[in-house]
């Protein structure tokens, strides 16, 4: 096995090992706190048989904010007080109940996917951190979890970048072999794979991955195909807005291990292919830049080829001659002889002013 292949395989193994370690640590640090928070919400929101459940308008969605317990608040916290007062008066609820509605709306969405910090969810979170996607769907709330997340990212992000880059190089090498054999089979005059060929190949592969992934996520998540395509593009370009996040419905992290594995493979392999495409684009740009520099240097060299500078031994003056025969064409009485030591010590004459 070639040394480059061994290096790539070693990086993959190290990265997956690092993800497993991160998932185990995040599980240990965050899962117990998550379970206590969920039990607290269920106990506070339990409805007695004689009571009617509070109506929850479907348009309420959390955006930002955080109280002292690490429980996020929805956007009503930042609206004018009149909105809150009107809502409380309309539904005849206390301010405490109103605040509890905010907490339930915010906290209920993540729990639809099941525990976010058990091993499957923690592994998914570690992958998102290492890939720099950062959906924001799940965040550590304990001090230990936040501290470990920062330390984990400092090591994991460079490791992930190197791994994706190495896999991208191997993919480009494999694509060049396939292109070369295809050209030989088609009896093309030029059988070598050009940069443009590789860019087209990786671009086509990236398109196939995104379109196929969009169909899969549309099927499992219930999104439209366009929304799924949008999610795949935002994910593989590491933009990670977080408005669409997979594995967040119907206890998917617990009940659909195959879908979880498929989502992780999509992220990791898709990012490797995108890295291959970016690697080619950067290489092409650097090649074009180097060609421009060489062209400018050649033009400058050609412009000074006819201009030669000599130093006169007697006067110390610099004499520039575009043609070495020019000095001998000056009339005898108007010249002074100067012995120049450059170019083999030949003597040249210069016009005396």
From TrEMBL:
Example GO molecular function: outward rectifier potassium channel activity
Subcellular location: Membrane
InterPro entries: 2pore_dom_K_chnl, 2pore_dom_K_chnl_TASK, K_chnl_dom
Keyword annotations of the record: Ion channel, Ion transport, Membrane, Potassium, Potassium channel, Potassium transport, Transmembrane, Transmembrane helix, Transport
Top-level taxon of the source organism: Eukaryota
Residues spanning the membrane: 117-135, 147-167, 198-217, 229-247, 259-285
Residue ranges occupied by any Potassium channel domain in the UniProt entry: 115-171, 207-282
Pfam family, one: Ion_trans_2
Topological type in the membrane: Multi-pass membrane protein
One GO cellular component term: plasma membrane
Main localization (coarse): membrane
BP GO annotations: stabilization of membrane potential
PANTHER family for this protein: IP11374P, POTASSIUM CHANNEL, SUBFAMILY K
Family designation: Belongs to the two pore domain potassium channel (TC 1.A.1.8) family.
Protein's UniProt name: Potassium channel domain-containing protein
Organism: Anopheles maculatus
